[in-house]
Write a structure and sequence with these properties.
The protein is an alpha+beta fold and about 120 residues long. Helices cover about 40% and strands about 20% of the residues. The radius of gyration is 18 Å and the shape is globular.
């Protein structure tokens, strides 16, 4: 029985996770969000090279759905609550909701733009 317990993977439900923004961002005049991803992660490069660059960040522009979701990722709501709020705001426009939400959050996490707590 001990061997079976070791082989079982702990199942993580995406809907129970709480996404938290991990980078700087700004809101444009039109209400859309622009993410500011630093060009370097190495502390030495961040300290000495990044301040000297004309454009120290990659700018990632989000659409209206992505911008609304980004603003909700403040570390207080679970993914399930995010989905409910997005459904209330966008209705049928956002369907298939859970597939789109999972893909978007997966891309944000893969690029280290968000983390989960």
């Amino acid at each position: 029985m001990v061997k079976n317990e070791k082989n079982k993977r702990r199942q993580i439900n995406l809907l129970d996770l709480i996404p938290v923004r991990n980078i700087d961002w700004k809101k444009e005049e039109d209400g859309l969000i622009v993410l500011l991803k630093p060009k370097f992660k190495n502390p030495l490069l961040v300290k000495h090279v990044l301040p000297r660059l004309k454009k120290p960040y990659y700018k990632i522009k989000l659409d209206d759905v992505g911008s609304a979701l980004w603003e909700l990722c403040d570390g207080t709501l679970t993914v399930e609550k995010l989905a409910e709020r997005m459904k209330d705001r966008f209705g049928e426009k956002i369907e298939p909701l859970y597939d789109r939400l999972a893909l978007f959050l997966q891309n944000l996490e893969r690029n280290r733009l968000i983390k989960y707590k």
